[in-house]
TrEMBL record:
It comes from Nocardioides lianchengensis. Pfam families: TPR_20. InterPro entries: Thioredoxin-like_sf, TPR-like_helical_dom_sf. This is Putative thioredoxin. Signal peptide: none annotated. SUPFAM superfamilies: Thioredoxin-like (SSF52833).
Length: 319
């Protein structure tokens, strides 16, 4: 599945939404969103059931951190309701980096009309009140969903976007109050530094966290990504690529282009470049290429499907 980087194509048009008094859903349409047993993801602290009444507030919550909007229809596509549950569960694992917003279009067809939705299920990622990726129709498999969220989380870090959604009560919808930004206080100094563009300070702050607790996986991932940002600062992309093409076995040239690939979202290209370098080199250079690749694995996240594939390729290159 091809992933799209964050973009800002334009704010969502809400003009198609009417705001009549709430009425009972049609027979067979299922329980209203938020009703007991009626909404997928009702056990997640980072999921909301979207209605016409809270749709605007849900979109505004994307100013804090991305909102993963899923439109589903239990009546027309029972598997789409299961998919909505799967998305909510996947989002919950990121502890506030994303908020799952679940729209039952059987109950609230006006939202689907406002978004000009042609196919169910449909997933959209919103940031700053606007679509941040192209809409993704159909059901994503678990590994595809993990890849999408991992890549978006990586891009958030690279762009210095550090906000987090606060946990919601199980099955709750946005209550009309603006979602307050939440940043884990342990990571706040490093994330503030990234937001200010001070990558060197971010590296130093993450290093403190890792030194204090080597088992802190999020701090280790933050440090690895911050080091990538540190290494690519001020680099001329075209000159770097030309140097790597001219010297395919030069460790510094190849690792720099791998960093640039990762920073630009070409994760698999970065991994492949370094796996090939490991395969061609020996001794200290091979060890250095391997260590650099392990650092890129940490930056992306060890649970990412691309990292698992990259580790298999690395093992093959080594043995």
């Amino acid at each position: 599945m091809s992933q799209q980087p964050f973009s800002r194509p334009g704010a969502i048009d809400l003009s198609a939404l009417k705001r009549p008094a709430p009425s009972a859903p049609p027979a067979g349409a299922g329980a209203p969103a938020g009703a007991p047993g009626g909404a997928p993801g009702s056990g997640s602290s980072y999921a909301v059931s979207v209605t016409e009444q809270n749709f605007q507030e849900t979109i505004e919550a994307s100013v804090t951190a991305p909102v993963v909007l899923v439109l589903y229809s239990p009546g027309r596509s029972p598997e789409s309701a299961t998919y909505a549950e799967d998305v909510a569960a996947a989002v919950a694992a990121y502890e506030g980096r994303f908020l799952a917003a679940l729209v039952d279009v059987d109950v609230t067809p006006q939202i689907a009309q406002a978004l000009q939705v042609q196919q169910i299920p449909l997933l959209m990622v919103l940031l700053d009140g606007r679509p941040a990726t192209q809409p993704i129709p159909g059901v994503l498999q678990a590994d595809e969903l993990s890849t999408l969220l991992n890549q978006l989380a990586q891009q958030l870090t690279a762009q210095g976007i550090s906000g987090r959604h606060q946990p919601r009560q199980a099955g709750s919808a946005a209550d009309g109050e603006e979602d307050e930004e939440y940043v884990d206080p342990r990571y706040a100094p490093a994330q503030d530094a990234l937001a200010e563009g001070d990558v060197d300070r971010a590296v130093a702050e993450y290093e403190k966290l890792v030194a204090a607790n080597p088992a802190d996986a999020e701090a280790a991932a933050g440090l690895a990504m911050a080091k990538v940002l540190q290494r690519v600062q001020g680099v001329d992309l075209y000159a770097a690529r030309a140097a790597a093409a001219a010297a395919p076995d030069d460790l510094d040239a190849q690792t720099l282009v791998a960093d640039l690939d990762l920073y630009g979202g070409h994760v698999e290209d970065a991994f492949t470049r370094l796996v090939d370098l490991v395969r061609r080199t020996s001794g200290k250079e091979r060890d250095a290429a391997r260590e650099h690749l392990l650092g890129l694995f940490a930056a992306v996240g060890n649970d990412d499907a691309r990292v698992l594939k990259g580790r298999q390729a690395l093992a093959s290159a080594l043995y």
